[in-house]
Amino acid sequence: DLIRFDAELDSRDGLGSGIEVSGTLPASLLLAKSASRQPEVAEPIVWDVRATGADLDVARWLRILANESVPLTSGRGEVELQTSFSGLTPTALNLEVDLGPTVWQGVARADNNYQRLELKAGWKATGGGWEATVGRFVVKRAGEISPASTGMIRYSRPADGSSTLSASADNLRLQNLWPVLWSVASTGLRRDFLPERLQGGVRNFKLTASMPAGRAPTWVAEAAFEDLGLVMPAPGWAVTGFTGTVRADQAGGRVKLDSG
């Protein structure tokens, strides 16, 4: 049996307002928790949870969840999170975020701060694998709204032990993505490995990979890029301004740069 619930929370410490949590919970799960044992059910029960916030202090929430400082120092807005489970196993997650002005630390230039950030992303389990999507990623910087970026990653691992991976993306502006990627990286990665800044556009990115059991993996990737570049931390060096296409596989690859 499922227990339906619906609650409204009003945070008075500035973490957010208009917080609503709703969904269903298996009665067997609650009974098992009260008895300090795992639920004994013949089949996993499907249940879900949905949480929304109209004016959440997302920057503070990230610091609380990470238990350390993060580059996003300021950012408020609307958040909607939906999750589905089969028993105790997550089967789907959907996230929508719409933030107003944000401030980021640890990034080289002030124009990496967004006037607005909109994200719609999801993840779901599939037969023998999973699929993650970015249905929409849009930012507003310096009064200009970027074209919507999209992307997808699909992974499958059948019972025979082989696996496949495919990915695609379009309208990626690396300078728009970089502060977000930087914010979720660990402190060690930011300090020792990651570039300080990326720039440029990537279109029509496609990747397919096959990893057969007991055999060498094969893969093919291709993309078009424009004004591609990166800046490394101090003492610092940079390469910028590359435009062209790239296609590669496990045997090698070819990069074609536009002249002029």
Which series of helices and strands comes N to C? EEHEHEEEEEEEEHHEEEE
Strand fraction equals over 45%
Q: What is the arithmetic mean of pLDDT?
A: 85
Oligomeric state of the chains? single chain
Number of strands: 15
Low-confidence segments, given as residue ranges, are none
Could you characterize the architecture of this molecule?
The protein is mainly beta and 260 residues long. The protein has four helices and 15 strands. The protein has a 15-stranded antiparallel β-sheet that branches. A hairpin with a 6-residue loop joins β13 and β14 (238-249). The longest helix is centred in the C-terminal third of the chain and has 11 residues, at 174-184. The radius of gyration is 22 Å and the shape is globular. The termini are far apart. The relative contact order is 0.09. The model has no long low-confidence stretch (mean pLDDT 85).
List descriptors.
260 residues, mainly beta, 4 helices, globular
Topology:
Elements: E1 2-9, E2 19-26, H1 27-34, E3 46-57, H2 58-66, E4 72-86, E5 89-104, E6 116-126, E7 129-141, E8 144-145, E9 149-156, E10 163-170, E11 172-173, H3 174-184, H4 187-192, E12 197-211, E13 218-231, E14 238-249, E15 252-257
Antiparallel strand pairs: 1-2, 2-3, 3-4, 4-5, 5-6, 6-7, 7-8, 7-9, 9-10, 10-12, 11-12, 12-13, 13-14, 14-15
